Amino acid sequence: MRRARYRVGQFFRHLRRVPLTPAEQSEAAAALASPALAALFAQHSPSEQAHALRVLRAVRAGSHPYTAQPELLQAALLHDIGKVCAPLNVFERTLAVLGRRLLPGLAARWGQSAPRGLYKAFAVAAQHPAWGVDLCAQTGAPPLTLALIRRHQTPVAHPATLEDEMLLVLQVADDDS
Question: Is 72 in contact with 166 (CB distance < 8 Å)?
Fold first, then answer.
């Protein structure tokens, strides 16, 4: 039930599309620590920027030792940046969420398609991490930031490395934001 309430709230937050305040923009720019990454972040829609900022704040508020790790903070803000390559409207986003929940096998198969027509929502949902890595690599983002973005949707059952532990922090913050 908690998850359903979150998704309904997410739907309405996306409809509002309120731009970040100058203070919030400064907060994001400081965490990105790079004019090129900040320019990339600015390409996000207002609702994606707000989501990314909630993820950043959740990472910082955690009780883990990575609250100030620059690469994790960058990944928190840029984990969904690949979505700028094929923007989705709120109904396409809803389709992707419901499809992955109700028809996971079909959604996974459709996710490997070109981002067009009925398959667009599923392709963006599945492929945006790779697209985001490509965009961030062009700005000179650190390798750890790229790895976290690439893997942000990949489940980690047993964290074996520092990267895995940071990935879990990112995933929990993303799921709760």
Answer: yes
- Alpha carbon distance, N-terminus to C-terminus of the chain: 16
Give the dihedral of Cα atoms 14, 92, 116, 43; nearest 10 deg: 10
Q: pTM of the full predicted structure? A: 0.90
Neighbours of 48 (CB within 10 A): 19
Nearest to 129 by CA among 74, 85, 175, 172: 85
Question: For residue 84, what are its two tokens?
Answer: 């700028």
3-state DSSP call for residue 92? helix
Question: What is the greatest pairwise CA distance in the chain?
Answer: 43
Tens of pLDDT, residues 2-40: 555 555 555 555 555 689 999 999 999 999 999 999 999
- Token pair of 37, please? 């990454």
Dist. CA 53–CA 104, nearest whole Å: 28
What gap in Å lies between CA 161 and CA 167, rounded to an integer?
10
What digits encode the pLDDT tens for the residues 36-59? 999 999 999 999 999 999 999 999
Task: Tell me how crowded residue 132 is: count the other CB atoms within 10 A of its CB.
Answer: 25
Measured between alpha carbons, how far is 101 from 33 in angstroms, rounded to an integer? 36
